[in-house]
Amino acid sequence: MSKLFSPIDLRGVRLRNRIVIPPMHQYAADQGHVSDWTMMNAGRFAAGGPGLFFVESTKVERRGAGTVGDLGLWDDKFIPGMTRLADFIRHCGAVPGIQLGHSGRKAKRFRPWEGGQALTGPDSEDPSWRIIGPSAIAQGNGYETPEALDTAGVRTVIANWIAAADRARKAGFEVLEIHGAHGYLVNQFLSDVTNQRSDEYGGSFENRTRFLCEIIEGVRKIWPDDKPLFVRLSVEDHANWTVADSIALSKRLADLGVDVIDCSSGGIGRSAGGSPLELGYQVPYAAALRRDAGIKTMAVGLIIDPAHAEQILEAGDADLIAVGREAQNDPNWPFHAAVALGEESPFDLLPDQQRHWLANRAKRGWR
């Protein structure tokens, strides 16, 4: 058995292999609710053979929605749709995970294919959809200056994050990830470029990391002990946040009950990786945190070849492999990877509706 297809136990949850479909925004929710597209999108990936499928960044507050199409968990009314989604992912053979996030100063935009500019029109006039941040510093040209949260406001956001995590638990998700990367609200608190507060949530490294640490402390109190907790970090944000900072933070997060760091980059200074991108360009981040922080890591970023994924695991650079955009290109990437690596029973990764026909076809010499 290849390393890629060996199972891994994370607390009380067993993943059948090390392949993860990471959170990928679809911006297709119906007023925050799970839509037909949400179900279809999850099903096509979960049925392809991964060990874990993450539902895209789901917002913990109305204020945190990046677009009109963001999924929400800021109210109990979202639980039934999320329950159906988690059950469906599980039925397809993957472990259901969900990422909880908040866009902060990057909220209230048009979808990327609509131009990604500041939202205008009737939807933008919702008084509950205000742009907030740790400080009144805009993302850049074309972005609205956020309202700086006061200390009580920070604690309200933390409480809302914990409440959303509890709804994710009630909906039946087995893995939870806190989005702390890509220039969104948690990342904004971590960075001294975007966080210029003078209270206990700003200034020193300890204070700037307090927001995330208090989220983790609160979530761990309601998230079951036998279920793993991930955090996605921009290990290097291409501004002032460094790999050394992420190592120090990850040690603290491990003590608080985080099991895996999902290792990405960018968001404050520039987009992840810059240009041009190289295959596996973020793997060194996963390797550094795994080695120097003593925590499990997930590698992500242009990992498209099964042999490369196997090499990353064999080298000890990561514990899990996230395959995102390549899975969009080929939703059956895990199954095809099992074939490519010579796994004995690759068809066992597939639901009955696919396995029966494709296995029979293979017996006739067709792949």
- The residue-averaged pLDDT reads 96
Globally, the shape reads globular
**CATH architectural designation:** Alpha-Beta Barrel
Count of β-strands: 12
CATH class annotation: Alpha Beta
Relative helix content: 25-40%
Q: What is the CATH H-level superfamily?
A: Aldolase class I
In whole angstroms, the N-to-C terminal distance is 20 Å
The secondary structure category is alpha/beta
Please trace the helix and strand order, writing H or E for each element.
EEEHEHEEEHEHHHEHEHEHEHHH
Query: Any idea what the radius of gyration is?
Result: 20 Å
Main sheet characteristics: 8 strands, parallel, barrel
How many domains is the backbone divided into?
Answer: 1
Strand % is: 5-15%
3D structure, described in words:
This protein is of the alpha/beta class and 367 residues long. It has a single domain (8-363), classed as TIM Barrel, CATH 3.20.20. β4, α2 and β5 form a beta-alpha-beta unit. It has helices at residues 36-46, 79-91, 151-171, 185-190, 205-208, 210-222, 243-256, 283-292, 306-314, 325-329, 333-340, 352-363; strands spanning 8-10, 13-15, 19-21, 52-59, 95-101, 132-133, 147-148, 175-180, 229-234, 260-264, 296-299, 320-322. It starts with 7 loop residues before the first strand and ends with a helix. The chain has twelve helices and twelve strands. The strands form three sheets. The protein has an eight-stranded parallel barrel with strand order 3-4-5-8-9-10-11-12, surrounded by seven helices. α3 runs parallel beside α6 and α7 crosses α8.
